[in-house]
Amino acid sequence: MNTSDFSTLDPAGVDRIRTELRARLDLSSGKLLKSAVGVSDTSYGPEINTQDEGKIKLTIVAPAGEISGETDRLRFNTTNIQPDFSEITYFLTADSPEEFFALIRDGVEKYGIDGDSAEGWISSASADPQMKSDFSITSGTSTGLDVNYDLRYDGSKDVQVVIVHVRPVE
Length: 170
Description:
Elements: H1 11-20, E1 22-26, E2 32-33, E3 47-49, E4 56-62, E5 65-71, E6 73-77, E7 84-85, E8 87-94, H2 97-111, H3 115-127, E9 132-140, E10 145-154, E11 160-168
Parallel strand pairs: 1-4
Antiparallel strand pairs: 2-7, 3-6, 4-5, 6-8, 8-11, 9-10, 10-11
């Protein structure tokens, strides 16, 4: 039984994340070690998809602050020979262009994502409401982790997606 405030990624921990719709990960050292989340060094991370249950309230404790969001998909990137996860990926969604732009601006403010690049993209999308775009904004590192917003936008669709990549700073 996990008595820590932090989530584990073993089967019981994944079940707990799905049930409680809450995940709290400790990357305060700049890395997420497999041993710290209850999986073996040869293990691949789980993909947690809660589209049927609701959104997970995700908190990543970083070296300088926290990264947070609500997501229904959480992925962990690694190999079977590394002792840590090289990347955590989660997905933010917005039901309107205005909500999408607010998510982007939130990332600029909270994580140091490049504001000029973000505002340039927002300006283009605002000028062309039916625009389709796959665009990666220059990462921010103000939390001590590399936070990248990879935008998936299609003005003809109801839901827009930001794929958030969180990595150790190289």
